[in-house]
Amino acid sequence: MNVFLTGGTGFIGKPLLKRLAAEGHGVYALVRSLSKFETVLEELRMTDRDQTVLPMVGDLTLPKLGLSTENIGQLLACDTFVHAGGPMNIGLDLAEAEIVFRGAAREAAGLAESLVREGKLRHFVHVVGFMSPYDESNALTDLSGAVSHAPPYEIMKFEADSYIRKALRPLEITLSTVNPSVVVGHSVTGETEQTGGLGILVDAVRKGAMPLSPGGTDHWLPMVHVDHTAAFIASLVAKRPAVSDTFYLLDDKRDSLSMPELTGLIARELRVKPPLAAAPPVLIKRLLSWGGNRLLGIPSESMNFIVRKEFTTTSKERVLRGLAVNQEALRRVVADLDYRLSHPGRKLSGDATLHVHEGMTLLALQDGIHPAAGITAEVISGEGNLPSANQPSRLPTTGQPMPLVFVHGIYSAAEQLLPLARAIKHDGPKQILELPGLGRAPYHRHPSVIEGYVEGLARLLRSFDEPVVLIGHSFGGLIAAKATESVPGAVRKLLLLQPALHPVRKAAYRFPKLSARLFRRGSFRLISKQLKKSGTFAMSENVPEDYVRYVREELASPRVLSTTAEIARQLTRADVYLPMLSASVRNKAAILWGEADAVWRIPHALQGCRVDTLPFGHQFPISRPLETAAWIEDQLADRGNSINPVLLSDTP
């Protein structure tokens, strides 16, 4: 089947484009820029495509969508037209919204008429929104007066819906109107590229700008995951319904969180105080429109999506079941949005992908991880169901070179170890664990701070088909060592980089929130001086500016700040450490130590181990990835230690 797709580089369009191509459809994608489209294809890992995806340069705001006569001729082969184009910007003024929604609908309908008359077009899919008042019963009715209170963004989307319905009625083709609710991140990883929508609420809660929940127990915010939206539209394309219909992509109200429950979940994940009470959305909207939106950064228009009414899901369930939003998925969405709000503009490079396995977040550098069921939602042939994201699975690695699993420390995150992982010459899968509560990962909620990390890592290690090489840095070294003691058979080699294995008494760990505030507010020169003084980096090293920038941004998150402070305080306690590594663990352990570290020392727990040293600071895996990678390669090849070996006998 051939599909013409507008909006193929957008939040919904990108996963839809990938899914349509993966299912064997020919996709003609409307794009404004070929260079941007190539970047999107790299991001989606579709660079090896053949002729299944064909970009067509055009623009929603131009006559005939800006397409050339030659391009329109090519579209005559299309069976289905999916119109998903248009910005997600509730702050658009009336003129802007008219151009990108109603104007684009007019041009799309005109093009569709030509493709029906001269070509093969038989199905039009229009992506609108759940607040539209139109359906098959009132498709020819003018309801503009009933929605005049809505913001321009919504008004013009509704008028576009009305125009398409009226224009296509005489053509006698199937019109499938898809009304997504508030589109949130991926149903397993939580990845939410678009920080509008739910991100507005997350940002307000994390800044303490939401003392009142917008709506009581009878109010709710209908939501749908972006991958579920793409899966549903792809299913519509494949099935091509015989009759026109309207599909609301949302859950039943009774199965959804009320607004106090939703804001409470967001607050718990961000580790801040929840709203004190509830207030009617209309009252909060009025306060925001009186100037509160500029003060708090919350658009008053955002209150329009909080509703009391229920919507029918019958037609949706006939096409595809299993599109539910659950609390675990929402926690990941909130964590991902929090990360993106702290790090605006940061993106994972094309060789790194986010995965979730056994409840743990991982950055993977190659296809060594085969996604657990639900990571990429698949339609079960003939049944119209999505599989559960919680089905147990193992990480299949048999027959491949042994997997490398990295664990980072605090004042760091998984992506800080990407340069090191990339530098290691190793054909097997390389995965970096994102510690819960840091980076993109939701906090573990275990009653014991340390054991929450240890049990999570041990659970992950047990899921591999064969033992792994476990590489832990700093606090990650402590967690790696304790997890190896817990499941020794799951670890072939334990490589510890500057492991934190003894109590520390420095003020930075006893008063971590104060230290974090100083870090965020100090100049780069002052921070560099302090980092060198503490031995975080050696005096001879240049402190990486990106590292300082990253940590500053990361500590802007109350979630990360609270987690970091909690871990730092634990590191001052003697009872969280191992008095001595067991003989079985020592036999598979190798240690690389930075001699410039002024805070940590080679611990007693490593007695009897051989330790290699480098003349660098605590964060040498970040500042010196090539030297660190060379040492790791030696350990993988069993070439022994080659860098200043020290045999410990009784280090105090």
UniProtKB/TrEMBL annotation:
Pfam families: Abhydrolase_6 (PF12697), NAD_binding_4 (PF07993). It comes from the Bacteria. Transmembrane segments: none annotated. Residues 404-630 form the AB hydrolase-1 domain. SUPFAM superfamilies: alpha/beta-Hydrolases, NAD(P)-binding Rossmann-fold domains. Residues 5-233 form the Thioester reductase (TE) domain. GO terms for cellular component: cytoplasm. One of its GO terms (molecular function) is aldehyde dehydrogenase (NAD+) activity. This is Nucleotide sugar epimerase.
